[in-house]
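Q: Structure tokens for this one, please.
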Amino acid sequence: MPGRTWKLCLLLLLGLGLGSQEALPPPCESEIYCHGELLHQVQMAKFYQDDKQFVDMPLSIAPEQVLQTFTELSRDHNHSIPREQLQAFVQEHFQAKGQELQPWTPADWKDSPQFLQKISDAKLRVWAGQLHQLWKKLGKKMKPEVLSHPERFSLIYSEHPFIVPGGRFVEFYYWDSYWVMEGLLLSEMAETVKGMLQNFLDLVKTYGHVPNGGRVYYLQRSQPPLLTLMMDCYLTHTNDTTFLQENIETLALELDFWTKNRTVSVSLEGKNYLLNRYYVPYGGPRPESYSKDTELADTLPEGDREALWAELKAGAESGWDFSSRWLIGGPNPNSLSGIRTSKLVPVDLNAFLCQAEELMSKFYSRLGRALATGSKGSTTPGNDSQATKYRTLRAQRLAALNAVLWDEETGAWFDYDLENKKKNQEFYPSNLTPLWAGCFSDPGVADKALKYLEDSRILTYQYGIPTSLQKTGQQWDSPNAWAPLQDLVIRGLAKAPLPRAQEVAFQLAQNWIRTNFDVYSQKSAMYEKYDISNGGQPGGGGEYEVQEGFGWTNGVVLMLLDRYGDRLTSGSQLAFLEPHCLVAALLPSLLFSLLPW
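A: Here is the predicted structure, written as tokens:
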């Protein structure tokens, strides 16, 4: 594509106009799966309904031979190969997608994990058993040829088998895997979790970060940084301190990636605060959505296209691809052409990093104690100084969260708009992520968060917490609801000492369980997202059809069934709570808490 090189260099130098950035070389050099004329011609021919299908197809021969044949064919047709000949070329040189993976039943899968016995409702208990069975369906293992001929695959080789989300997503994904791991640990599958963790740690050692997913075309971007939290969950279930000792420096390396490449300075009332944003300093269309990105860019002046593509990649890095969150302040609030992800400081990203910094401090302190008590195995030198370092980083981030993102009047945190120097006060469940992450200093935060949910009328939604109150047609907006966002709010409230907050958490959990159970009863499937506008049903919108599976949805349901299994019900005997019913339900616990004991 003419002019790409100099524009890309310019984009890197400018850092999208925000702060100083490291000008890293593009991590994916593939002229088949990541950029180049072959990718452009095939994807724009639209042989497949989903652009992802082509970039997931393995090569039949070495890439050099494929490129040489393509170059000759393209030259013979003045760089515009007739459709039939191009299709014949693809059929000859590429294999069907999925060839590099084989089904895998985890060796640590067992029939009846203990948590099932905690579920009182017989129908929910049977359902939980069926979700436990799904781990076998979602298990994948790479074939040996991915290791022996990595150049023929877009799949990044990983030594250990793993659980995939499902549907079109036949590789692992970064933040999805956290909720998958939580579910696997309830299913007593700690060895599977350890293998998945090791895959991620190996990726950090190789590339310096965890990519968005397990494909080379995802290497330019990451996803919400939950690797440290994954390690913490694994440790909680196994107490495998040796594994922590072996990998603590790799965890630190991943956090360094976010510090070096995703930090932005916010000046407020004469003070500078360092926070993080999603930011991908690479242009070019996303390979897995190539034709959509190209057609969208064609609606803009040529000089604006590389920046658009970089913003789309940043939106994908956020995990919210796509949402009105990233369109605020753009020329068209409902069009992706106005996306400006990197211009916002997101609440959830900074809460995740705040939590990671706290966990790293605890990890180093734990290793220091283990060394002091003569624990076997080597440890990282300077544990005390490292623990202090991360405590200091957390304190600095907490101060920045309070100063830049917290809104006392509303009782919530909000994404900060760097260009317009103001908070985006639209509702998103991510606004309460610091409550979930334990990253706040005000003990009255839970009470304020409850009032925020009430004022936003979120507690009137009967089937789940909406992703936003905006209807843009994007999949991370109304009327869709997503499992991880339910968890952010539910567990954030459940951790609070207030009985009222805990009761609201339970009712929100009941709503979500009922929605998932009802859809499963009708469809015999779990989905990545749900439409909660008129009863629960599979979600929609965005760039592709709703997918079945589904890794993180299963994980969140199992977590809720484990926490509330003695109270949750499958039937209709407990109506969804309207606001006046909610007040009635909460009144006894509220009065109890006010008694002068």
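A few notes: The radius of gyration is 24 Å. The longest strand covers residues 263-268.
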